[in-house]
Each structure stands twice: as C-alpha cells, then as structure tokens.
Amino acid sequence: MSKTSNTQHKKAIFRVIFWNQNQIYEVYVNQIYQSDLYGFIEVEEYQFGERSGMIVDPGEEKLKTEFSGVKRSYIPMHAVIRIDEVEKQQSLGKITEYKGDKVTPITFPTPMAGLRPKPGGDT
What angle do CA 8, 11, 13 make, to 5 degrees? Predict the structure, then answer.
C-alpha cells in the first residue's frame, strides 16, 4: 500500500542565462532539455511572473515582448553561460547589453582553404 501526501509537487524553475547578438539574456523556464537538433538545448514554458510595483524595467519589458507567443526556443549550447535550478523566480528575467570582456565567445576551428583538395585536381 502506497502512502499519499497532501503536499503538492512544485514545478521546477530554471534560470537560463545565454548570449545572443551582444546581449545577455536571463530567462526563467519550467522545461529545459537537450534537443534532437545537434548542439542545441530546448527551453519551454517561459515564466514572466507579475510585477508588484509601478517601476518598469525596460530590459524586462523587452524580454517579455520578444518572447510573447513563443512556445519553445532552441538555444545553441555554445551560447549558454549558465543554467540554474532555483527555488523561486527572483525576477521577470532581463536582457542586458554586453559591456566589457567578461564573456568570451567560443570559436570553432574551420577547415582552411589550402587544406581542401581542389575539384578535379591532384591531392
């Protein structure tokens, strides 16, 4: 016989911080997992919460506008700065401009043109 609990199971909340076009995004989501698309993670169920005051943060409003109506996002793994599972949502999320050199983009080696065989030529 199994025991039943009166406590409700709370949904996990994840804070995802990633870099996109010289901006740092901080979003809160309930679902995050590795995508079937190689090199991407999927985030779903965005959480924007409610404002308690009259002060409006333009970064939070920009984020809310950009992701309104978005069901799922695919974020490249190399753009992810940090993922945290949090007890509760600390803010609505935000978009901030990248200032300084604290975030270094990862570069990937590409084949050099001189190393490729020429079509129809000797290798």
Answer: 145
Residue 34 has a pLDDT of 93
| Mean pLDDT per 10-residue segment, the chain (123 residues) | 50 90 89 93 84 65 83 93 88 75 62 60 56
Residue type, 65: T
Q: 120: phi > 0 → left, psi -120 to 50 → alpha, else beta; which?
A: left
What pTM was estimated for this model as a whole?
0.66
Q: Distance between the two ends of the chain, CA-based, in angstroms? A: 72
Strand partners, 20: 23
Q: Check residue 13 and report its DSSP letter.
A: E
CA distance 30 to 63: 17
Do 93 and 63 contact (CB within 8 A), yes or no? Answer: yes
Q: How far apart, in Å, are the Cα atoms of 18 and each of 23, 50, 79?
A: 8, 23, 5
Model pLDDT, residue 31: 93
